[in-house]
Write a structure and sequence with these properties.
heterodimer, A: 11 helices, B: 14 helices, 2 strands, globular
């Protein structure tokens, strides 16, 4: 296998992994703080992406499209948390089942409004060109996705570990009761985190609209990848999401290139291996 | 016998009578929907076995059923005969259930749910990608029901009888020492461990047993539609099975049947009036979780108990 081919597949894997990180980071942060497995995360991604496409078609501006997609997903997240999830706070199973209900409703709503045909966003002009890397040319947009995910990851890490807001969140994760008795409004921190997670899913959706296509069912497809990423990386761990995304992205790209018939299976294999030897994931805290 | 017992016997007789009478009084379309209700209820029953007893909610069980159905379909397409169809289905069901069991036996609660979800979608992906075996998106055609039950009304009776037997089996498992072990695990894993049980081994066995019931549902599914496509393993199929259990009543014997009735009615009957039946289903799920957490049958049982305990 020539070096160029290897590099090409590695970049494909990393750019898909970057997209996965945008999605999985929100999922894992929400879980880390609230212990909610948000199965509507894929639906937030889908609705954000669709709104992004519609806005781009109307306004011809990628930044506006991103903002619209992120805002829409955030609004859906806010409504889900304030109206529904808050009523069953702390009960694991009802919470998940509610998110399944929300996912069904949002996905069906997307089908009603945007139809069943695959849609994607025309890549914005500045990013539509390709750059020469060694012996091949590579789409700038994919490199942009990698840069964006890296920036988001660094930002999240810095916020979590170096700011007052991050300290509030970590306090909520570690000991909710003590945090509350110190005067922290934990329910408000919860809502903010859930909305932020949904917004990240929306961002991933708009970014994905330029990378993949969006269609009915794309929400559960991408949800599988996000789940595998967080299970491999460790539920609730930001570093785990980063390492898991890169790993799963690379495995996906190389398996698609080498053993296309087994590409789904290849993504699942690392998860099974990690689960057998480290049930709490690579970076997860063991849960009892 | 006490009044309550008489009432139960009468209800059972009325139920069986109704099931037997259905093809003679109802139009064939409704009977074929009832067939589908029984098949869905069997899959939901296998989910309920884990969810109701052990508190392990699987949102990937359609994957096991679909694997069994693909076994039937594959053997049928290769003209291997009835015995091979059942044999291949049983072998695949066992193999897939063991994979489900091995990957989930050390987990509980949310992690169990997430891994089964990922497994279910993986089966879906394999069904889609391994097109040389599964026919990919186009699916497999050329499946035929066994000669003796080929007509729609005969197949209805066959399905109803299979469901009845499986229901009996589920009831036996639920009341057996094994069922008690599962309940113990739901209440406290630590206590079960200190009593000397291997929680991991019990969970492994539970998933495999539940998988066997899901496999039966899969065989019926393949024979019913005489066609297999990846959508049988899709996330929404697995999610619907969970919806049936939750709406009907987790941990109740007949809850999955009631839930399956409601879901099938929504999917096939409601959909001819309202285009957005999935939205309706999502809203029903949300309402049940918020306002009737024990489901319809669970709620009714609670009411009946209150009523009978009144002096």
């Amino acid at each position: 296998m020539p070096v160029d081919e290897l590099l090409l597949q590695a970049l494909n894997g990393l750019s898909f992994g970057a997209l996965l990180f945008l999605l999985a980071s929100g999922f894992t942060l929400v879980f880390g703080l609230m212990k909610i497995v948000n199965l509507a995360h894929g639906a937030f991604y889908l609705v954000g992406g669709y709104i992004g496409i519609a806005t781009f078609t109307a306004a011809r501006n990628f930044l506006v499209a991103v903002l619209a997609g992120v805002a829409t997903a955030a609004v859906f997240g806010l409504a889900s948390e304030r109206v529904l999830l808050r009523r069953v706070r702390g009960k694991e199973l009802p919470e998940v089942l509610l998110t399944v209900g929300i996912a069904l409703v949002i996905a069906d709503g997307c089908l009603a409004v945007f139809g069943g045909n695959p849609r994607s966003i025309p890549i914005p002009t500045v990013l539509s060109e390709s750059v020469r890397l060694g012996g091949f040319t590579y789409p700038t947009y994919r490199l942009f996705v990698i840069a964006l995910a890296t920036a988001v990851g660094v930002l999240l890490y810095v916020v979590q570990h170096r700011t007052r807001l991050g300290a509030l969140i970590r306090a909520g994760v570690d000991d909710r009761e003590t945090a509350e008795s110190m005067g922290i409004n934990v329910p408000r921190v919860f809502t903010a985190m859930f909305v932020f997670g949904a917004a990240l899913a929306g961002l991933a959706g708009v970014v994905a609209a330029g990378l993949l296509t969006l269609r009915p069912g794309a929400d559960t497809d991408i949800l599988l990848f996000a789940l595998v990423v967080v299970v491999v990386g460790g539920l609730g761990s930001l570093q785990g999401a980063a390492v898991g995304s890169a790993l799963i992205g690379l495995v996906d790209a190389f398996s698609k290139a080498w053993v296309p018939e087994l590409s789904y299976f290849a993504v699942f294999a690392p998860m099974a291996i990690v689960l057998m030897f480290r049930p709490s994931g690579l970076f997860g805290r063991s849960r009892t | 016998m006490s009044t309550a017992r008489w009432a139960k016997v009468a209800a059972l007789a009325a139920g069986i009578g109704g099931v037997v009478a259905a093809p003679y009084v109802l139009p064939s379309y409704v009977v074929s929907l009832l067939t589908l209700v029984f098949i869905s209820a069997l899959l939901a029953g296998s989910v309920n076995l884990l969810a109701g007893l052990a508190g392990l909610v699987s949102i990937g069980h359609a994957g096991i059923a679909a694997a069994a159905a693909y076994g039937v379909a594959w053997a049928a397409v290769h003209d291997l005969g009835l015995a091979a169809e059942l044999g291949v289905a049983a072998a695949i069901t066992f193999a897939v259930s063991v994979v489900y069991a091995l990957t989930t036996m050390r987990t509980a609660g949310i992690v169990f749910l997430m891994i089964t979800l990922a497994l279910g979608i993986t089966v879906f992906g394999l069904a889609l990608k391994l097109s040389s075996i599964t026919g990919g998106q186009n699916g497999l055609t050329g499946i035929r029901r066994p000669e003796v039950v080929s007509e729609w009304w005969k197949f209805y009776f066959f399905t109803a009888a299979t469901y009845g037997l499986c229901l009996l089996g589920l009831a036996v498992v639920s009341r057996s020492p094994f069922g008690l072990m599962l309940r113990g695990i739901r209440e406290s894993q630590t206590r079960m461990t200190s009593l000397g049980y291997s929680v991991t081994a019990v969970k492994f066995a539970a998933v495999v047993v539940s998988g066997a019931f899901a496999g039966c549902a899969g065989v019926l599914l393949a024979w019913n539609s005489e066609f297999m496509s990846p959508s049988a393993a899709s996330f929404s199929r697995s999610a619907l099975a969970v919806v049936m259990v939750i709406v009907g009543g987790t941990g109740t014997l007949l809850g999955p049947l009631v839930g399956a009735g409601i879901v099938v009615a929504a999917e096939y009957w409601l959909s001819s009036y309202v285009e957005r039946w999935q939205t309706v289903l999502g809203v029903v799920l949300i309402l049940v979780v918020l306002f009737a957490p024990r489901g319809i049958v669970g709620g009714l049982e609670g009411l009946a108990r209150q009523f009978s305990h009144r002096p």
